[in-house]
Amino acid sequence: MDLLQLRYFRMVARAENITRVAEELRVAQPSLSRTITRLENELGVPLFDRQGRRLRLNRFGAAFLVRVDRALDELDGARRELDDLAGLERGAITIGAENLRVVQNVIADFLQAYPGVRVQLFSGTAAQVSARLAAGDLDLGVVSLTPDTPGLAGQELLDEEVLLAVSPTHRLAGRDRVTVAELATEPFITTSPDYWQRIVLDRVFARAGLRPTIVCEGDEPSAIRGLIATGFGIGLLPAMARDYSGPAVAWLHLDDVYCHRTLHLVWRTDAYLPLAARRFRELAAERFAEDRPGGPE
Description:
Helix content is 39%, strand content 24%. By secondary structure, the protein is α/β, with parallel strands linked by helices. The model has no long low-confidence stretch (mean pLDDT 87).
């Protein structure tokens, strides 16, 4: 068996879908199927139960996957250590975030300091970022929820208030503060339950014994402000959004002490963290400390 077989097996084992993995790898599906079949023939046992076109990892495959994960993680760690020995003139770092905009300044600082390091980015929900970290596909993640995935450690970057945004012509636009009860019948624009905005919205309404009226739910957090500006509805946005360019909205404080979010930088505790990732972690801590109200000038 060779490394390519093992990497292909790991991807298929996680997805349990040959077609999807073939599309991701941009290889022909029959070729990928033959690679898996050859691996099974070499091992002398089937790694998947096949039901038509569906694959399901069986007990042999599950046991083998544990060893493959360990072996590939060790080899990837060894490669990263060699990159570290060569210095930061080369190497790579992979970073995941719920919203890439929150890390764009750190990335700009990092690329200026270490132009030889290749940076790869992934955008997804906190759960997706954590899952990719745990699988070894990312070096670092930036998420707005406290990481509770085993094997992950976190460092707080920012704790900020979450504000209510309304259109400039909304009846509340001239107010500074508002209670949750006053918003009982207001139409909300928010994300799906997988994102922190929806989690905070549901939490503050539940504390008031209410449920929000949702007129727009989606997986595009960056579109919320624009929709609010049209007057279609109101929504919750992080305080840092006030510093971003975008459609004009009015900002209000919500009378709930739990209407805030905490941004964490997370990484695996059981894998080698490359030098580039450690430098990015240091830069992120410094940059967010500078941008924090009352931080260093």
